[in-house]
Amino acid sequence: MEKNKRNRCIQVYVLDKEKAAIEKRAKESGKTSSDFLRSCGLEQKIVTKPSTNLVSIRLQAENLKNHVLSHKHLAVEASDQRGLETAENLLSLIDTIILTALK
User: Where in the sequence is the domain holding 25, given as residue range(s)?
Assistant: First the structure.
């Protein structure tokens, strides 16, 4: 008996046209339908949907960033160097928060 013989089955229900499309793509890739579906299931990177809280935090950070950008613009117009530096520091911090939320 072969050591790594596949002996488990997963049932997947599909429409006739989906079955035909899978078989066609498998044949085009030089694989059996089983090999093709196995590679699709095991070799693809899984992308998870972000939580509602994470999306909310990101949106709030984007809104805050827009508000700070308005203040930065006013600081530039008023030649307010301290206000400009503060706005730039806040923008950097907000960008860090947004990037962290996306990881």
Answer: 12-46
